[in-house]
Amino acid sequence: MLDPEVFSTQRLVASKIGLEHIDLIAAMHQNPTMMATLGGLQDRQRTQQGLETQVQDWQQAGYGLCVFHDRASGAFVGRGGLRLVQLDNQPETEIAYALLPEWWGQGLATEIARQARAVAFAQLQLDSLVLFTMTTNYASQRVAEKLGMVYERNFERANLPHVLFRQTRQAWANLG
Q1: Which of 25, 65, 110, 163 has the most other CB atoms within 10 Å of its CB?
Q2: How far apart are the C-alpha atoms of 162 and 132, rounded to whole Å?
Q3: 122-165 pLDDT per residue, tens
Q4: In what order do the strands lie in the sheet with 90-99?
Q5: 163 near 154, Cβ under 8 Å?
Q6: Alpha-carbon span 122 to 131, nearest angstrom
Q7: Domains, the chain, with CATH or none
Q8: Contact 94, 112 (CB under 8 A)
Q9: How far apart are CA 30 and CA 98, in angstroms?
């Protein structure tokens, strides 16, 4: 299993997400500003189910999502990393992140995404990564563009319109 510390960045400390983070994640999932970017509020039961899936991802794949804390203050920032997903009945690995609004606009989502991509391609040797977000989440679309990811298509997920980006390991290697 991958050491979750590899997801840490210059400004953020990562730790493997687990059931012990239910209070942090449940509170985050009740933040209306943040959850507007993820399709709406989630109750504690749905959050618990999501955490159980994320724990299984770590057990099955050896990687997954992490919780992130600010290196300087220790404050909880959000979650992110690599997530196993199904798209068109095909397994994919997604670069995922969700930050509390007070941490927006500081480049942290891009920092998390860049580190997750480096782990995926350099250490795990994955061939391809996806990043998807709601069509109205322009900030996350900008993160994908900063990473050099390529727009693939629009699609529906959880009955909501999303935009899908992809990057291959070869394209990442060619970025220099």
Answers
A1: 65
A2: 6
A3: 999 999 999 999 999 999 999 999 999 999 999 998 888 999 99
A4: 12-16, 65-70, 76-87, 90-99, 128-134, 160-168, 150-157
A5: yes
A6: 18
A7: 4-174 (3.40.630.30)
A8: no
A9: 13
Question: What is the C-alpha separation between 115 and 123, in angstroms, rounded?
Answer: 11
Higher pLDDT, 75 or 42: 75
* Residue in the block written with tokens 């989630």: 42
Q: How far apart are CA 153 and CA 163, in angstroms?
A: 6
Stated pTM of the model: 0.92
Q: Which amino acid is at 129?
A: L
Is residue 108 a contact partner of residue 73, using CB atoms and an 8 Å limit?
Answer: no
Which tokens go with 175? 């970025």
Question: What is the number of residues in the chain?
Answer: 176
Our measurement of the distance from residue 161's CA atom to the centroid of its chain's CA atoms, rounded to an integer in Å, reads 18
Quick one: tokens of 2?
């991958």
